[in-house]
Amino acid sequence: MSFGDIIDVADERDGWRFAPELNGWVEATHLRTLDEAAEELEKRSEKSPSAGLFELRGRIADEQGELQQAIDFFQQGTKQPDVEAGVWNSLGLALQRDEQLQPALRAFSEAIRLSPDSPMGYENRAGLLALMGDHKASLSDSNRALAIDPHRAGAYSNRGVTWEALGEPKKALADFTRALEEDPAHFDARANRALLHVAEKNWRAAVTDYEQLRKYAPSNPDLANDYAWLLATCPHETVRNGRKAVELAELAVRLTDHRVSDYEDTLAAAFAEAGDFGKAIEIQQRLVKSKPDETEFQERLKLYQSEKPFRDSGE
């Protein structure tokens, strides 16, 4: 059984299962649900444990939203005599998402030690090093990954992030674009390119990237918020769209259950752009009350009280 045989199932009827990610019905004998696979792999690993079985169990736990359990399974996998670099990479990615950055760095380094001719460990470590602010080391790892495989979209994306941090926006744009040439659906590369376009005041290009991103991730709150902010506050009139900004900002707020103040700030800006200053003021007053030290919240409230929308100059 391979991981590809394991899939989430939304419905089951008469021996057929509906798999949302396949957008269709499949005979039940041709796939296993995540729960079924988890149960079977548990039995197999008890009878004959292996690194691969524990890695599969970790990936299933991760799919089910159990990150700590996934980490535990990956760690068990690294203790097996047949462990390979892939298990260490899976562990490193899970630890990174759990914000255990130093243990993640050690995991990626171990993956590289076990498989120095594979680009995956270098690519993963480059992304982590960029996150940790070690841009020189990140650039080195990205270059090593691309020297092994010049078609790694993730390595180009990571290197683009590093170039941007080093104050090289043209090089960053070139790498994000190359990543998308290799993989047009690469989410991080397109999201980072959209943000770079905004920073460089290439607003129409940013809109094009955001529209593509919405096709890939229609329920991503960060994406919805960033796009809403652009549509609500862009200095260029032809880019702004108050109605759409409100829809996107409301989505971001709803998906995060009103827990993110920056998303609420975006929603207020969107209402102001749409001409509904009453709602903009109501939201902004709540923000000022909850975070009185945020001077930007106070400044925007004064604008809305004067029935003026906010414009983000990007300065």
Describe the SSE topology.
Elements: E1 11-13, E2 16-19, E3 24-27, H1 34-47, H2 51-63, H3 67-78, H4 85-97, H5 101-114, H6 119-131, H7 135-148, H8 153-165, H9 169-182, H10 187-199, H11 203-216, H12 221-233, H13 242-255, H14 261-273, H15 277-290, H16 295-305
Antiparallel strand pairs: 1-2, 2-3
Helix pairs in contact: 1-2, 2-3, 2-4, 3-4, 4-5, 4-6, 5-6, 6-7, 6-8, 7-8, 8-9, 8-10, 9-10, 10-11, 11-12, 12-13, 12-14, 13-14, 14-15, 15-16
Percentage of residues in strands: under 5%
Radius of gyration: 23 Å
In CATH, the topology of the domain at 117-217 is named: Serine Threonine Protein Phosphatase 5, Tetratricopeptide repeat
The multimeric state of the shown protein is single chain
Second-tier CATH architecture of the domain at 117-217 = Alpha Horseshoe
Average residue pLDDT? 91
Q: Name the shape in a single word.
A: globular
Helicity, as a percent range: 55-70%
Number of helices: 16
CATH superfamily of the domain at 117-217: Tetratricopeptide repeat domain
Largest sheet: 3 strands, antiparallel
Give the H and E element order. EEEHHHHHHHHHHHHHHHH
What's the total count of β strands?
Answer: 3
Structural class determined from secondary elements:
mainly alpha
> How far is it from the N-terminal to the C-terminal residue, by CA?
54 Å
Low-pLDDT stretches: 1-10
| Spatial strand sequence of the major β-sheet | 1-2-3
